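Hi U.,

Before I forget, here's the chain from the pilot set. I'm dumping it here mostly so it's searchable later in email.
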Amino acid sequence: MLTQKFVSYLMVLLFGSVLLIGCKEMGTESVQTPETTTEKMALEKIAQEDSSLVSFEKNYDEQGGLDFSLGKTAEQIFPVRVVRRVTNVTRNFDANIIGDTSYVTATLTFTGNLFIAASYDSVALGDSSAVDTIIVKPFSSTVVRKLIFSKVANTRNPEHNWKLIAISLPDGGTVTQNIKIQKMTISLPNDTLVITSPNDYYLSRGLGKMQQIPLLNRNQRVTIYVEIFSKYDDEDFVTLTFGADIRGINRVKRKLTLESSIPVSDGFVKTFKHTFLTQPFPGHSHAIVSAMPKQVVFDDQAPVECKSWGIPYFVR
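Structure:
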């Protein structure tokens, strides 16, 4: 009898040990520990949590920016209302770690639709109550920006070891040779920023030797000049989207005014201008310039061609 009880006790003990080992193994597979996080994963996570970088996507995706109501509005932004709505974003981070510095190329591929609220009656342009059609055009665009990280520690968790110290400006758009942005000049109260190559124009994240992210007051006046090359004589459709915070609210879109158009050998060099006021509340945001040939907006069969540049800023 004693032997039988002893054997039963051993069986229960062995079964409990098996369960305990099994639970431990399952837990190890389902929970990602700091030791299993790679350097690349850590850099990507830090970038995706940075407010200045996040604010680009919140302004690039103009979800909710188009009023489909056919009622008359008190203010017209521009004759044809155009909104870019993103349905999917694919992110790729290519990291090159050299010593205590990591150089990252972040490539974002956006797919979605361009919504155009329009009227086939040219007399009706400017009157939202006369909008009689919504045109939907699919698009795919790729935006690239460069990031620089500095190694600040050597802990077991890579997320604690790296700090984002600089970001370039974003540059991208659809595949097209018919239009491109060549220069962007931003006139601030105490400074003028001139950008000719966004991926080579870096802004510091925190204190550093590079140009700081513009720090602006609420309702501050900012003037932006954009120089584009276009193969078309017609006035291109150039817009500025800004103001959305990291939650994607308070987004504003405005059409830039054509200042000049100079013929060149294979097209036209045009300068556009717009003055805007920053949002009346603090936080990170992005100002994004997008340039499209006129037919993208006014021809219901023309495919989407678009180039975009942007710059982050902070309203205090």
